[in-house]
């Protein structure tokens, strides 16, 4: 394996590919944080600020909002990166001479 995690027969990633991966990871993180913050504010922050809620109700809303925000953060992060990976593999598959996925010795089908 080389330093980027590619298998030996696949070759190195170009600088443009590495830059695209870096930008996509940054986008995934920023959009996941923004979505999680919006959900938390909608579920917990807004009602706590607007209404005069008791301590127990505010704590419950905070816990529920935090759990939903964390779940949404992970879901958004995984979804964005998964879609990027699928598009990247499709582009590589369309290029002649480049394998769509790493070689798998002993396997008879490329999708196995």
From TrEMBL:
This protein's UniProt keywords: Membrane, Transmembrane, Transmembrane helix
Keyword Transmembrane helix: yes
Protein origin, superkingdom: Bacteria
TM helices/strands, residue ranges: 21-46, 58-82
Protein name from the UniProt record: Uncharacterized protein
